[in-house]
Amino acid sequence: MSGDERWSGADARLWLLGDLTDRGPDGVGAIELVRRLERESGEAVRCLLGNHEALLLAAARHGGEETSVPGETFYGLWELNGGVETDLRALTPEHLAWIATLPPLAVDGGSLLVHADTPAYLGLGGTVEAVARRAHTLLEGSADEVDGLLVVLSDRMRLGDEAAVRSLLDAYGGSRIVHGHTPIAFVRGVDPRGVTGPLVYADGVVTNVDHCLFAGGPGFVTRL
Description:
The protein is an alpha/beta fold. It is built from nine helices and seven strands; from the N terminus they run βαβααααββαααβαββ. It has helices at 27-40, 51-62, 74-80, 85-90, 93-101, 128-139, 143-154, 162-172, 184-188; strands at 14-16, 45-47, 105-108, 111-114, 176-179, 199-201, 206-208.
């Protein structure tokens, strides 16, 4: 998308489920694009907090400090997860402040939107608003606090259990869960280039929309 293109979605709402950065040529450029679309759309475009945004923030603010992964610093963990040095150098205080305000989950149109496919969000709070407040506090806090949030955001593949799905919907609302984080190609054991639509599972209650763009997936937008 070039700099002279503008939001043209009229009254549509567009959600991105996080992981704008890492493993790509211009993660900060992706952040700038989403921030601009938010403004142009009157916040009809929104983005959730993914583990990669949180890890980028941690690398910037706590890079040399140890994580809960034995022998790994935040910088080292970020690098292992596809961190791109030019992104780290291009980050501004405004970018970091924006990341810190991203909500971990949201409810829109009957869908509970989360980044990671896990019930671990329940450990952050019992309402959507409480989770958002807690995540913001942790991201602005110590290295240990950021590390604890990363544990939640990095958890995956735990929504095949009916009880886990029901616990999230009962706490936060919605009639179905939509998540990213876990690439559909990895779950199905297929070439990412063949993934052109979401993966619906758990008796139709959970939808995975991670198109594995970084590994060659063509990407897609899902109408909810």
